[in-house]
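2024-03-11 09:14:02 DEBUG pipeline.ingest accepted 1 chain
2024-03-11 09:14:02 DEBUG pipeline.ingest length=190
2024-03-11 09:14:03 DEBUG pipeline.predict start
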Amino acid sequence: PNAGKSTLISTLSSAKPKIADYPFTTLIPNLGVVRKPTGDGTLFADIPGLIEGAHEGQGLGHDFLRHIERTKLLLHLVDGTAEDPVADYHTIQQELIAYGQGLASKPQMLAINKIDALLEEEVDDLASQLSLATGEKVFRISAVSREGEDELLRAVWKRLDDTNEAIAAEEARTAQALIEFNTPMLRPVS
């Protein structure tokens, strides 16, 4: 909650979500098409923030967890100005695990938002902590000033392309296995 998800989708797309300076402003998912430099686009969804217990129906996020089962990539936005952004990230991960349905195993990316409100050293320290927790690169952005958005989007496009290639390869393997399974063995006639 209050991590700047709605602000980010409003700067990346033509979506016009309600934006306010208090938690749980987002009551329903906001959708926006984010255009690639090539002109085609990808649908981004701003989901209401998850809180501890969301998998049990706490807060608003539970109602929308099932919607993100269809996504190819989860981009987590962590409020860099929050009291404990690392704990916030862990809460989200625990909720994804507890909810199940494969959400925790989906490709994920992480960005610290509101870096314009932090000192560079604070951002570096937080990025290091989150990188240790995730084992992944942590992006640094400001949805308000749009700082870091281009790098983040390039990485999102790359990750989606990689994910799409992996999905296509798996579908091709499955199709080939079905063909082989359903094709009777031809035996030479003597």
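2024-03-11 09:14:41 DEBUG pipeline.report The first strand starts at residue 30 and ends at 35.
2024-03-11 09:14:41 DEBUG pipeline.predict end
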